[in-house]
Specification:
The complex is a heterodimer of chains A (270) and B (320). Chain A is mainly alpha-helical. Helices cover 73% and strands 0% of the residues of chain A. Chain A has nine helices and no strands. The longest helix of chain A is centred in the last third of the chain and has 38 residues. Chain B is mostly helical and 320 residues long. Chain B folds into two domains: 47 residues, no CATH class; 230 residues, MetI-like (MetI-like fold). Chain B has 13 helices and two strands; from the N terminus they run ααααββααααααααα. In chain B, strands 1-2 form a two-stranded antiparallel ribbon. In chain B, helix 1 runs antiparallel to helix 13, helix 5 crosses helix 11 and helix 12 packs across helix 13. The model of chain B has no long low-confidence stretch (mean pLDDT 85). The chains are: A mainly alpha (270), B mainly alpha (320). Chains A and B meet through helix 3, helix 4, helix 7, helix 8 and helix 9 of A and helix 1, helix 6, helix 7, helix 8 and helix 11 of B.
Chain lengths: 270, 320
Amino acid sequence: MNGRVSALYRIGLALLLIVAVLVAAALAGDVGVRADFMNRLSAPSWLHPFGTDQMGRDMLARSLHGLALSLWVGLLAASLSVLISTLVALTSALGERADRVATFITDAMLSMPHLMLLILLSFAMGGGTSAVILAVAISHWPRLARVLRVELREVQAATYVEASYALGKSRLFIAWSHILPHLAPHILVGALLMFPHAILHEAGLTFLGFGLEPSRPAIGVMLSDSMRHISAGRWWLALFPGLMLMVLVLAFEALGSASRRLLTPREAQC
Amino acid sequence: MTVLRLITRQLMLLFSVALVVFMLMKLSPVDPVDAYLGAAVSRVSPEQKAQIEAAWGLNRPVAEQFFVWAGQLIQGDLGFSTTYRMPVSEVIGQRIGASLALTGLAWLFSGLLGFLLGVIAAALAGGWMDRVIRVVCYVLAGTPAFWLAILAIMVVSVEWGWAPICCSGPIGVPDQQVTLGQRLEHLLLPLSVLTVLGVASIALHTRIKMIEVLQSDYVLLARAQGASLMDIILRHGIRNAALPALTVTMAASGEIFGGSILAEQVFAWPGLGRATVEAGLKGDVPLLLAIALLTTLIVSSMNLLADRLQHIIDPRTRRL
């Protein structure tokens, strides 16, 4: 089995896992959201494989809801962020001065600890779901913008672009049929690799109390709640939601690096 | 000349960040007076509220507020923290030691440990050891920092009872009476968690660079001359791989600080990270602004230093 085939298998497996999470969360319905005070804080059993929380909610269903929520937040935030980084990279292409401004803004964004920036942005927007989505979107674009800028410079200097100019093609034609096809795989891979970061940061922000509302079944909320049960030895409240989140993040990591191998094989050598 | 330009750029960067962060704070729907009063808000008349606003200068135009704040900042007056009821500079002064001990040491150790693991993985590239290190690094990169911290408390502190469950000293003992041994005892677990979390990216970068070095012509020549793998790694490998590792470690300072905000929250560690969260949740704008600027100063200086160091240690990169 060569690298490309195994990359395809890994992509298939990761996609299967992600779809399974969404389907399972939809099938769970309001299980995991509705309280059931007869079964408070029960340890993992056949009926509740992940145990139940202080309101008797099934942790497996709750974790699945949390993952689905993370997926949606991550999807929206990452798409927005990719859009911003593409626009910034394109601004760099406009000219020397525009490039300097774009680089300065990118550097400024990278000069603050990521989580600090997220806290400030979320504070500025008053917290809640839309604030998290926007905060993650606004704070995650600089790295991809840097990659895209380098790629853009490379393709602009390529001989086939020069030849196209010499043949009298319009700027629009060149942007559409030479530059965009060159950037497209990088944009896609960048989006996929941004996803795990976005999900992890959303969970962290929610955990600290700046993110999703405590009423939502978010992984960050569950782990924050579990802090109160640490000394009581209720390990299942913390272990399973975090483990599920980690598996989801790793699935996206695998999806991203496998797609990079397929789409931009030269950079993915090591 | 270039140094002067870099400093100007750095100052411009800080000024822009200060301006943007200030605007963000002003944009916030959290009313600082309401946040300050908390539950007491019901006992305060609108006139009294207006008086507090006037005393804090909140009724002035935003631009004026910014320049007053920036002017005081330059004179060393960081403002008054409403959460801790003392000047911001005192809050930071009390907490920076604990933060430096945790974050600084974690940063140092993760750099060293990451480099070591990267070198080992590269030297044994393709073997089972390399495989283990790589898998561990990938998994660590996808691990939520705060979750790992919670698990560490659950297993090490609660289950085994090897480490204290929280804080930087025994509960109820005044800060001055905590002995060095107790401090270390409380530091050990948060420090280990943060260190382990920081290792992944440094180890993976070092590994790639080291493999590149080991495949180079000069290593081939050394091998042909009969040098052992140990010789090659010590004399050629480490020297060439140290620079990129240093750059990555420098650039990782922001990530480590982010991790420390989460870890301080879980371990109830009285550092700047916890103060950030408190300030953010309670609408303590002066404290939040000060910590944001301080961390920006540190991280951007680290980035700059990484850049300069690269040029100084390896003059070949200067032309690029």
